[in-house]
Please model this.
Amino acid sequence: MPARHCPFLLLSALLIAATLPSFAGGPTHRTAMKDLSSLTYLVIHPLHRVEAVSKDLSAEIDYDDATHTILRAAFSADVMSFDSGNSSRDSHAMEVLDALTYPTVSYKSTGIETTGSRILMHGDLTFHGQTRPVDVSATDSTANDRLTVQGTTGVSLTAFGIERPSLLMIPTEDTLKISFTVVFPSGVQ
Model:
């Protein structure tokens, strides 16, 4: 090959090498494995506790494989998908939550702080037709080629315009405790 073509080949090789890290080390988009993920709420009344679970959770993250950190997170669930094991109680909950008017609860992160496996997500929760800032504490772990994120938060029912349910004319606590377990496969989804 003539010598005059060598600088072109060298420049081409350098350009290709410079672009490789952007393909290999960038964030990956991951979608939750629904069959392994769940969202739970807990309402506390002086006489009993009510816990309901939704397995119909849609969640996604952008994950930086190089730093093992979540860069962005979002979830949504159908309000009618929560099951407490008591259909009468669930029907009443759907009335209180105006589930026909506001069928979805959703969360989108606006910033994420990570220290080791501890995660603090700042974001916006949309619930009962209102959007409010809510922080979520979580942890993540990796095993069997899966990333599992577990977390909790509490939200004020009255802050979202929801009348606290009552039993024997005694209302529940104002804080609705929310917890979740979301499992993501490894790699690009």
Summary: The longest strand covers residues 130-143. Residues 3-24 have pLDDT under 50 and may be disordered. DSSP finds two helices and twelve strands in the chain.
